[in-house]
Automatic annotation (TrEMBL), chains A, B, C, D:
UniProt-listed Enzyme Commission number(s): 1.2.1.38
SMART domains: Semialdhyde_dh (SM00859)
Family note: Belongs to the NAGSA dehydrogenase family. Type 1 subfamily.
Source organism (scientific name): Streptomyces physcomitrii
Keyword Cell cycle: no
Active site, UniProt feature: C146
Gene3D superfamilies, A to Z: Dihydrodipicolinate Reductase, domain 2, NAD(P)-binding Rossmann-like Domain
PANTHER family per the UniProt record, alphabetical: N-ACETYL-GAMMA-GLUTAMYL-PHOSPHATE REDUCTASE, CHLOROPLASTIC-RELATED, N-ACETYL-GAMMA-GLUTAMYL-PHOSPHATE REDUCTASE, CHLOROPLASTIC-RELATED-RELATED
Name by which UniProt lists this protein: N-acetyl-gamma-glutamyl-phosphate reductase
Every Semialdehyde dehydrogenase NAD-binding domain range: 4-136
Pathway linked to the protein: Amino-acid biosynthesis; L-arginine biosynthesis; N(2)-acetyl-L-ornithine from L-glutamate: step 3/4
């Protein structure tokens, strides 16, 4: 079964990474590529690393261009996906790599995005309990945010088994591609090389309600999240350091067992051997996730760390993994398990 | 008043940074420079950035070489300072940039370092309550660890005013120079560029008891610390993201006022204007500290972030600041307040 | 046709990159993996990015272990390949990723390596005139050095058409992985981040005679090479900036035509559109080569720039490309054409 | 003697570096600071590393604001300095850190900048033959470009003694700050980290005529320059690799002697011991220059390498050095000789 896929937003980082992966996907034929300000240009001039697609020309992002494909990926700024999606028929698989359809509560959306809520779609994080069932055969997928992907995978086993108190503290470092390709002074190479800095501090980052949504669903009660994102001097990668008070009676063995159980069958999640810790370099360009967990007995906390590539598993790889499930293809098809290191 | 200062361990990163600062200090004359395996070499061959000292030759680290100076800085691996220090007379100001004399409790030392405790000296973090009095006129100084410097400065105002619960959660990113100049495979440029990874997870890092010691002293009760250090792809800098549950009744205003009060007279601590967050690049090569604090009302936590240069304020700059106090010199003398950016 | 391949030196950077590519090669089954000091360890502990091979255990590098495979890759320090190779039968395809069999002249080898010359094997740079014929069906392949790969591809079209004088001047920047995984102080992340520096200056770098050999063969006369390698603050990539005096009568059009002709049928060489210049990021992890050429009329020089990934096209990818030719497989099989960017 | 100095363009990288150095200069009092789009802002919000000046407010760049200072530094885009300078009286020392007054030939200016030539001022590279005499007491200084600073210092001793043929080939790597603080997509951290790429290839870079001017003056005949600048993944630093055919009869000894003679009395130029090569990290933040030279006997070329900090010696430090000469102050006053490493 070969499907034709269009990519809206092919000139940005998420769109470029999706194309890199689609080139290697055996069951996808790459159809229309669209952009906004870059429409009319050769793809080779804006994504020079995509040699096999260099001569493709970017079309404008319209329903006419995107129609006629079995799959349409939307890599658009938030707020733009809904308008495009409603022009695509219900028989088209629409995979939204933006934020529009991630949050289930309209109030959360309105508070963090300040506009009307477009709705919610099946959530593309297959490793979460119940997620695969919702993705099988679906025609609409909301791809998770990059931080929520790393954080939810690192913490959900502890919450699923009631091993952590419902107050999570998360500090995550992200490579600069997470901030996109729009030229802003604080994202210049001169500014970011050699520097670590936080942003969106104090619970205001838009990925916070998504983490709360995921962890609360698994825990069966409201989990609060103290989330501090930091910008790291690297192009890609998220390292999420997550902790919560250990529930009474938790031991290192119980904790380890919960994580082993959660990930035993997962093709992309690598629970590392004890004593080895995740590194973003190990999952560079890969759809794999590295996870490790520890019990800090002095501080009485569960500490879990997850590493992903924000553009791969955190965006485009995760999108393809969910597409595979929606189309009934093998979940791993066309997705790299190896990182590019050093 | 000009003093002659010797530096033991002049070929390492801490020793090199100290020399960079000493060259610019108006009241210090640089005396003997010693090393272990590099003894006999020109300084220019191992520290090529120190042009004015390029022709100096490294001597072996012996009491004979170090004697006869009014100040001796020890930039040695832990466990070596005590043996050297006891051969230096009580009239010599000995500034230990290693760990040997930082911890007050022998049990803490033994547990984290596995050897006999050498004792404790006045603690060289002048900004802590009561620290300046202990440093004035002293002949022995224990320079704090780099992580404890950043963390203690970021959190102590909250504990001093009883605004935070005694369970601190800290995630800190450090540049690679914090790991020293010994060649280890995981510190190769090929390994660290593009990668973030944690280490010493779960309360086992040796700087943990030092943080507990500092914060507990200020809080007047035992503070537990969940500390996760991470290695960041940059040569220098520490970004410490610290949080604790807010005490009942805390507001953003109260919090801000406590920090303003704590740092109002501090020459090196820059409490940033509200909304501006610390960045390690801003304090590159500087003895300054950038601090910001916020109240996350949803998560109910105090969040404080500190940025320092691990080699400057975190080691060699902090050492000089304390030396100035011990010698009765102006505290800021010879210490840079500007960072090197971009 | 599936072949079984062994990799000697699987714990280093070249070996690791080869394994990353072999995992994705549809006609290769990965057999024995060997190492020297790391023998006995899980591959996952030394190459944590190779998730699908994490549980493989490294064997010692012996003829017994390597025997019984149809292909044996040698990623060993120079001087070790010959001893291993002579124990492998003539029916085994031996691909040497080291230097031992690259140079045709014993005098060159002796001068630059100071030991006895082991001989020369068919040279694995298929894009050079005549190279494919020598590789078809061969059982022995000498994989080129990373710098000679970039330089030879950037310059040979000019020499093949007699458009440049036989005195080439080359300055190339390499990522740190080119120096290998052995821990040396000058390769520490603290040393290389933020720094550019030359090494092996003045014609002493061991890749110099290999460049001379390649360019002279194409030019039909002795070409001298002034080669200056520099270490750049990035893990991978070579940017080779090459120039030579233009031959009389050369024009930009003639030059462009020569390059278009040379690369018209090449699957991996991307002669960029005029005005676009190579960037190492565009070929990160890819077997592709980016080339651009210009005629500096003021200085009277041909200027050609090539960008490759030193570990991919420059080592492991080039090795696989030649293996494909030797085995009669499609030359592009299993080799990535897309780079990993940003 | 204390002078009051104004800085026009204080929000950019050159202006910021100048302020960092001026803070430490004992004979300069910092007066008005001006900007264009950032006028009205606190300096601390745009240059957060300049703690002692954080509360200064940026004024608009007008003659009224700049007047009344003994020294005015212009760190403005090219083409703007002339208009400002002519409004400042002849008694004011005007130091132009831009390009407007560097070139002596109007034809060169018109060809490379496409506008009318504003004239030429005494050239602020004191190490060049005759330069100090022209700078002593002058009221107008043209600060050299960053690349011409590195290249001219690396090559002039060879040309001064007739040891090199008049066809120089130069490949230089620059940190990203050389491209300024304006946000452009190709300068994003995501784009530059991990990448080396050339730009302005084939003799079109605007610094080319300035190099030709300097080297030709020293050589006493027209020197052609093949110049290829490359963008390196680091915030600061220039490494210039320069070569030319050796003149007949040149030996390594003769070459070394020429360089030793040229730099024997230079406070900022460090001709490294034989066998040690420049590294940009060694001059990070310093006004020092590292130089090394070799004779490649096989290729018959003189090879000289220079490393500077593009913002320090290459712009702001060079400006201050020349200011010191113009004002009759000691040339080294207030200028750092040590680099910030690692």
């Amino acid at each position: 079964m070969t499907v034709r896929a269009a990519v809206a937003g092919a000139s940005g980082y998420a769109g470029g990474e999706l194309l890199r992966l689609l080139v290697a996907h055996p069951e996808v034929e790459i159809g229309a590529l669209t952009a906004n300000s870059n429409a009319g240009q050769r793809l080779g001039s804006v994504q020079p690393h995509l040699l096999p697609l260099a001569e493709r020309v970017l079309a404008p992002t319209t329903a006419e261009v995107l129609g006629g494909h079995e799959v349409v990926f939307l890599a658009l700024p938030h707020g733009q996906s809904a308008a495009v999606a409603e022009q695509l028929g219900p028989e088209v698989l629409v995979v939204d790599m933006g934020a529009d359809f991630r949050l289930r509560e309209a109030a959360d959306w309105e508070r963090f995005y300040g506009s009307a809520h477009a709705g919610s779609w099946p959530y593309g994080l297959p490793e979460l309990p119940g997620a695969r069932a919702a993705l099988a055969g679906t025609k609409r997928i909301a791809v998770p945010g990059c931080y929520p992907t790393a954080v939810s995978l690192a913490l959900f086993p502890a919450y699923a088994e009631g091993l952590a108190e419902p107050e999570a503290v998360i500090v995550a470092a992200s490579g600069t591609s997470g901030a996109g390709k729009a030229a802003k002074p604080h994202l210049l190479g001169s500014e970011v090389m050699g520097s670590m800095s936080p942003y969106g501090v104090g619970g205001v980052h838009r990925h916070t309600p998504e983490m709360i949504q995921n962890l609360s669903a698994v825990a069966g009660r409201r989990v609060t999240v103290s989330f501090t994102p930091t910008l790291a001097p690297m192009p890609r990668g998220i390292l999420a350091t997550c902790s919560a008070k250990a529930a009474p009676g938790v031991t290192a063995e119980v904790l380890r067992a919960a994580y082993e159980k959660a990930f035993a069958e997962e093709p992309f999640v690598h629970l590392l051997p004890e004593g080895q810790w995740p590194a973003t370099a190990s999952v560079y360009g890969s759809n794999a996730v590295q996870i490790q967990v520890a019990h800090d007995t002095e501080a009485g906390r569960v500490l879990a760390v997850g590493a992903i590539d924000n553009l791969a598993k955190g965006t485009a790889g995760g999108a393809l993994q969910s597409m595979n499930l929606a189309l009934g293809l093998p979940e791993e098809l066309g997705l790299p398990l190896t990182g590019l290191a050093p």
